[in-house]
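Hello,

Our lab assistant flagged a job as stuck in the queue for most of the afternoon. It eventually completed. Since we weren't sure the result was trustworthy after the delay, we are filing this so someone can double-check. Below is the sequence as submitted and the structure that was eventually returned. Let us know if re-running is recommended.
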Amino acid sequence: MKKAAINNNEKLTLNDCLFECRIALEKLRGFEASEAFYYMKGILRPKKEKKKVGGKVYTHDSIYYVRVDYINKERKVKETYVKDGDVESIQNKLAGKKENRKKYSQLKKTAKALFKQLDKLMIKTNTDKTVWERFEAYANKHEAYRQNDGHAANESISALGERCRSKAECILANQAFSVQLPYLYEADVDVEVNGRKKTFRPDFSFFIKGKWIILELLGMLDKDDYVVDWIQKKQVYAENGYVEGKNLVCIACKDSQGIDSRKITQVLRNLKRGFIPREMVYA
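-- returned structure --
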């Protein structure tokens, strides 16, 4: 994978930098949601406590995990009781505090340098800053998914941690990652239907050569109701400026059948160069 140009003479294009910033932000958010981050600050603290049993007061030793956070510049101390059987496990996690702080510091340093580089490129190419704000908002949205440890057994997880609704979508996400194409999965797109605002969530949105391109994966074109719904949706897209061959890409594939990922990869490679298929691609 191409390495970010931070302290060398390598020049990144805007799209390359968007991709690198997306990866840097995902790594940063992922670390902040990990156990390594949670146990990076705290300490184990013994405490003598009194407990009344049957009219008698007993003193016993307890262990608490204590960590300090600063929320809106206000110091917050949180104490969590630790069961005897969990003490050794938490001690092992706390043993890596120094190394984890170093790792977190490097992640922030890399992200900061890339964001600074992106700002310069956006100014140079006269790109609206809301483009990156949309990527950042998307990353924050998926942070909530990371906080949920459990996921359905049939979910497919992409290389960047998105919980994809289908295997085909997961394949496309991973292929976009492999060709270093910055994308958003199921990001909101505002449209107008009969004079009213409505939100669509196309399967993928790409920012390529200064414009947004959306991609829909169509998996049930053999069903009449699905086809009718897609025709109506495609018409709404057209009325809102999203036209196939211009800034709308359609790929037909089925999870229940074999998927030719080579065709998906070729579409994405062409997209990266600014070439958009004029008609539906069957994968």
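-- support follow-up --
The delay was a queue issue, not a problem with the job. The result is valid. Helices lie at 14-32, 35-38, 87-94, 97-124, 130-147, 167-178, 224-239, 261-272. The CA atoms of residues 185 and 192 lie 21 Å apart.
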